[in-house]
Amino acid sequence: QAIVAAMPPATLASARTAPRIVVPPDRAVLRNAFISFSRLAGVPSDLAMALGWQESGWQRNKVSSTRAVGVMQLMPDTVDFVSTQLLGIKPLDPRDPIANIRMGTRFLRYLLDANGGNVDRALASYYQGAGSVRQLRRRCAGAARTDPAPDRSRALHVAALELGRRVLLLVPEI
Q1: CA–CA dist 69, 95 (Å, integer)
Q2: Theoretical Cys-Cys bridge with 56: which of 62, 77, 95, 121, CB 3.0 to 4.6 Å?
Q3: Which of 8, 6, 10, 12 has the alpha carbon at shortest distance from 166?
C-alpha cells in the first residue's frame, strides 16, 4: 500500500514580490503530463512540476554535464532502474518528455517511500543521490544534528511548493 506524503503548508510569496514565471507554449503542453503521471504515482503535482522546472525549466532536450537527460533530468542508471524495476517495462527513452515525466514522477514516489514520506530527504535524494543521503545520515548518527537533510533541501522544498503552485496557476489548461 502506497504511503501518501502529507505536504506541509507553504507560505506563498505575494503576487507583487514573486517573480512571474513565463512558461513557453511548447513547454506548457507538458502540464497535463505532469498532472496525469503525478496522480498515477501518488505525488503532489505541484511538487513534481516544480522539481521539473528546477531541474530543466521543462526543457525536453536538456542534458547536464553529469549526463542527466530531459525534463526531470534523469541519469541513465535511474532510467534503467525506474523502467525495469519500478514500472516493469523495457527502458523508456528519457529524451521523450512524456516518458521522462512518467519516470521522474515514479522515481519521486519511490524516494518518498524510501524516506518514510519525508519530502526534504526525498528531494535531497533526488538531487544528491539516495546513496549519498544515506551515507550522510550514517555519518550524522549520534551527532548533534541527527537529521542530515540539508537546510538547502528544506528551503528547496518550500520554494518548490511555491514555484509549483505558481506554475499551476500560470500555465493555462490545454
Answers
A1: 7
A2: 62
A3: 12
pLDDT in tens, the chain (174 residues): 445 544 445 444 444 455 667 788 889 899 999 999 999 999 999 899 989 988 999 999 999 999 999 999 999 999 999 999 999 999 999 999 999 999 999 999 999 999 899 888 888 888 877 665 556 556 555 554 545 455 545 555 555 555 555 544 444 443
Single-letter amino acid, residue 42: G
Report residue 112 as a C-alpha cell.
518518498
Per-residue CA distances from 143 to 25, 125, 128, 132, 165 (Å)? 49, 21, 21, 18, 36
pTM above 0.85, yes or no: no
Residues 61-94: b if buried by 16+ CB within 10 A, e if exposed: ebeeeeebbbbbbbeeebbebbbeeebeeeebeb
Length of the chain in terms of residues written:
174
Tell me how far the alpha carbon of residue 63 is from its chain's centroid.
Answer: 16
